[in-house]
Amino acid sequence: MNPIPSVENDKNLFGFWIYLMTDCVLFASLFATFAVLRSSTFGGPSGSEIFNLPFVLTETIILLTSSFTCGLGMLAAQKNDRRMVLAWFGLTFLLGLAFLILEIHEFRNLVAQGDSWRRSGFLTSFFTLVGTHGAHITIGLTWMAALLIRIWRTGLNSGNLRKLTALSYFWHFLDVVWIFIFTIVYLLGFIG
Amino acid sequence: MLSGYLYLLLFICWGLLVSLMEKNYKVHLHTSTYIAGYIISLVLSIEAYLIVKHGLLSRRLLIGSVAVLAVSQLITQLIAFLHLGGARKSKWSLTIFAFMLTILITLVAGSLWIMYNLNYHMTSHSTDTYIIHDEGISQ
């Protein structure tokens, strides 16, 4: 059994946890902006006219599953099973990439219909909030790819294990943020 | 009837959550925690989607239910995936989380309050009329 470092016994991870909490505040300000501007459509479409709920549910399930496989990867790390760590995190990477591709597809469709961020205050805040989440996913994927190559080459030493734990916190955190984007932006937007 | 079913499901989820918290995972992570967290999250997401997509409740009840489902899922994932509040001794991570929540609520509620108030005072031509009416000022 490989002891997994935690926020409570590793000061680097503790620092990373504080970063995650400040990132929450960044998202909170974007959520507040969205909540204020959600009815400012300036004659453009409202949420219920442009959101495709089944599509968004698919994105949600993909991201949730990737959060789960990321956790299974951490369990493999605990068992010191490098192959399974690479397999589970590889799957996490692919699911994250699928999520990102779906999100880009949604954005491209909206822009092609003429509903870009320039259309109204509502769409500006929508693209900023969801786009910031997407940017975090992109950074997470880059980080994951780099770390997986590192683990593949140098194994599960304590430094890599700590980095992997930080990455798993980051990834679970992004899924938690997505729950609120799904609920506040899409579901409440659909209710109107 | 449907809201009864909804609350029943929520109760089951919370029962599972409590049993998760009882479990002692100070040192090692457990597969069962992750599987339970995943299944509960999946159920909550799909449930929220179904009630909204098919408009199964009245508007007000729908908004309340969706909010409750989101917060339930937040707590589920914080416990099952981020291991918040798992160990018995005091946790600094939880303290920082609580502080972040304070800032978050102040920021969001404060922004909405200020912007609503600004809207109330500045939007239309008849602003003076309804402010005089609402505040009970006689000219």
Describe this structure in words.
In chain A, 81% of the residues lie in helices and 0% in strands. Chain A is built from six helices and no strands. In chain A, helix 1 packs antiparallel against helix 5, helix 3 packs antiparallel against helix 6 and helix 5 runs antiparallel to helix 6. Chain A is elongated, with a radius of gyration of 18 Å. The interface between A and B is large, with 48 and 46 residues.
State the helicity of chain A in percent bands: over 70%
The rounded distance between the terminal residues' Cα atoms of chain B is 53 Å
Number of strands of chain A: 0
* Straight-line N-to-C gap of chain A: 51 Å
What spatial form of chain A do the alpha-carbon principal axes imply? elongated
Q: How many E strands of chain B?
A: 0
Give a summary of the structure in a few sentences.
The complex is a heterodimer of chains A (192) and B (139). With 192 residues, chain A is mostly helical.
Give me some keywords for this one.
heterodimer, A: 192 residues, mainly alpha, 6 helices, 81% helix, 0% strand, B: 139 residues, 5 helices, flat
